[in-house]
Amino acid sequence: MQVLPAISRLSAVSGDMRLLPLLLLPFYNPILLAEQLATLDVISGGRTTAINALGYDAAAFTAFGTTMRTRVSRFVETFEIMRLLWERDNVTYKGRHYSFDAPISLNPKPVSQPPPMWVAGGAEPAIKRAAKMGDG
Known about the structure:
single chain, alpha/beta, TIM Barrel, two-stranded antiparallel sheet, 5 strands, 41% helix
């Protein structure tokens, strides 16, 4: 099941509950994901908290055209790009996996500025990443 369409539908009937989509960041285009999460945050009235993880299934990485070896750097870049797009206009970015020179702005911006971003994981490097990057 696709998490964002499903949780978007649930946002209409979930009252004041927080919406906590779990996202495997290395599989997403960061600009599209930032826009989708911003839209979810707007339609939910600011109730969105993204739970972000690396993923662990090598077959899934192959299916998405990437590798386990690059999952951490893709995760970090996607996380950084989403934050930048939520907080600023005319964003440019130069990274190992994602680069855009033409300035990009999202509209609408999320209600929460920025929406909380949690980092999932149980291994020592993931815990350190969560402490450094995450909000919870």
